[in-house]
Write a structure and sequence with these properties.
- The chain is an alpha+beta fold and about 260 residues long.
- It contains four helices and 17 strands.
- It has helices at about 30-35, 75-85, 150-160, 200-210, and strands spanning about 1-10, 15-20, 45-50, 60-65, 95-100, 100-110, 110-115, 125, 130-135, 135-140, 170-175, 180-185, 190-195, 220-225, 225-235, 240-245, 250-255.
- The relative contact order is 0.19.
Length: about 260
């Protein structure tokens, strides 16, 4: 059987996206998902996304990590699927869709996708790190000399030793200016550093505000894959109107035998 797919990337965070409105994909085949995401034996990606019909909204987003398991929310993947929906003609600039963490709105402006993320009501600030959930769980930790920091080894250790079997994504952060931070992320499910993580930079922006590292309500995050912006509205109950903004690019279309 031949499967049509589209390859997307958002600041280097790359995805296989499939139009599954006709239910053509074997959703419970974790080995197939993992093979498609494999960079040597498949297409190669940090994750796989299905665009599906929704009975009330523009579409439904289903996201799988590169290990083949369905996962929590992916911010860069969310921005990429919005671009894909526009490419398919399902939306015109603005959209409402559903993902595993609930309803999302998004808008395409000047070639970038601005995606509304889930509200955050709780941030746990510890002596050396913060922990919060921005649709996916994130550990946020300040470091020095981030360009030479051992993200893979330290991220893997933290992911497994602190957070158990479920694990957490691990973000390392270095501040450049009041509203500019460099970020590198170890992602669970990929089990490696990725060039960018949308829910990760969202977590970093909120954690930096919550711990007094910044007074800005719009923060620029410099990832190895490019620049992302996060804006938010602090309230007595946490943070709402959390927006993740950045580029989303269709790289190529192809078919693969499965």
């Amino acid at each position: 059987m031949e499967l049509t797919f589209y390859k997307y990337q958002g600041t280097g965070n790359d995805f296989v996206i499939i139009d599954n409105r006709q239910n053509v994909f074997f959703k419970n085949d974790t080995k197939l998902v993992a093979r498609l995401c494999d960079r040597k034996y498949g297409i190669g990606a940090d994750g796989l996304i299905l665009l599906e019909n929704h009975n009330a909204l523009d579409f439904n987003m289903v996201y799988y990590n590169a290990d083949g398991n369905e996962s929590s929310m992916c911010g860069n993947g969310g921005r990429c699927i919005v671009h894909f929906a526009a490419f398919l003609g399902l939306i015109n600039g603005k959209t409402k869709f559903e993902a595993i963490d609930g309803l999302h709105t998004a808008e395409i402006l000047n070639g970038e996708v601005s995606l509304q993320m889930a509200n955050v009501t709780e941030i746990s600030n510890n002596q050396n790190f913060s922990f919060l959930n921005t649709g996916s769980p994130h550990h946020v930790q300040m470091v020095t000399d981030i360009d030479n920091f051992g993200v893979f080894s330290e991220g893997k250790k933290i992911r497994n030793s602190i957070y158990g079997n479920e694990g957490s994504n691990v973000n390392f952060v270095e501040q450049e200016r009041n509203d500019v931070f460099k970020v590198r992320t170890y992602e669970r499910g990929v089990e490696d550093e990725t060039l960018s993580c949308g829910t990760g930079v969202t977590a970093v922006a909120l954690a930096m505000f919550a711990t007094g590292k910044t007074t800005a309500k719009e923060v620029t995050l410099k990832t190895p894959g490019g620049l992302l912006k996060v804006s938010f509205n602090p309230t007595e109950n946490g943070y709402n109107n959390v927006m993740l903004t950045g580029p989303a690019t269709q790289v190529f279309k192809g078919t693969i035998t499965i």
